[in-house]
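Researcher: I'm preparing a figure for a lab meeting and need a structural model of a single chain. I don't have an experimental structure, so a prediction will have to do for now. The sequence is pasted below. Please return the structure as tokens so I can convert it later.
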Amino acid sequence: MNKLITPLLLMGFACNTIYAQVTLTSERFVSIGDALDYYLSSADSIDLGLPGTEQQTWDFTHLSGSEMSTETYESAALGTFATDFPDANILQRSTDGREDYLEVNATSILSHGYVQEILGEQFPVRYEDARIVALNPTNFGDVTETTTEGGFAISLADYPLIDSLLNSLDLGEINGVLDSLRFRSTTIFRQEADAWGTCRIPGGEFEVLRIAQVTEVATFLEIHLSLGPLSLWIDLANFFDELEFEPFSSENAYLFVSPDHKETITNVQLSPLGTVNRIEFAAFDPTTSTDHITLNPLQIRVFPNPTQDWLHLQTTLSDGVYQLGIYDTQGKTIELTSVSFISGVGKHELVQPVAGLYFFQLLKADGHIAGSGRFLVNN
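Model: Understood. Here is the structure written out token by token.
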């Protein structure tokens, strides 16, 4: 009997090993103050391999790029549309101008919506139900799929330029008063952890899960027409070319995600036909340790740390006045104040400090992040 049991135990152990090689946890979740850098590759093709349970190796060391993109994460309270996303605690800003309002907790990253440009103006698109971005834990074979609705409506009286543009459209024989604009979107988002193994990029070698991701967004733009006692909504689909509005987008992507890094190691974005639209890879310095996680766009020394009452910040920033934001681990704003730096040092007395971990951001006069970090209060 022992001779039979032993091989079975070994087979069971081997199967469990296959499916448990890489587990993604909250260690990869972003937090306030993070700034994640990526290189944009000029490559127009790449070998992605196939889904499957066997360990794979993806060798992307041939990728190169001089152009960079950055994702920064700050308190959602600093966003222009913070009041439209009361459940969000982190605002993600991308180099391309996109803004997403996220809720990050111990078990998940959720998106509550984003900022959409319509006819030259910025508007908040809030999801009726939050969209899942990432879960803790995520293992090989896990699948998530969500369909979320979002939108907004505005009075044209508040936006004279948009009002003028829409009134210039030829609506045929329909006569009436245009008074409102309505935007609606339906987003289908699907992720599947379909492969695992080792991913090599110019900055190092990393154990990863491969996440196959599909995003489809259908958008609708309508104007409200008042006809005396009657009224109706008119679909502007026939005018999308004239308005330079994209009604539908579809994108497939493969994300190579490490459990030890907040940066996605490699992100390959494909068109619906399978051609490469964009390739990004983490901008790690190969001469440094591969346990690097970007937490701070500018290194700032905090002392004493832990502290009880005073926060001293030492950096290479130019002398001047900066805005200091202090946030708890849930992204709630604890303090917003101004700090003067003299000879590279600024100091601030904490207001009624409570023991715990806190994050801070320094903002320049133009609103850009000058630096960030974390500190402990021990009293």
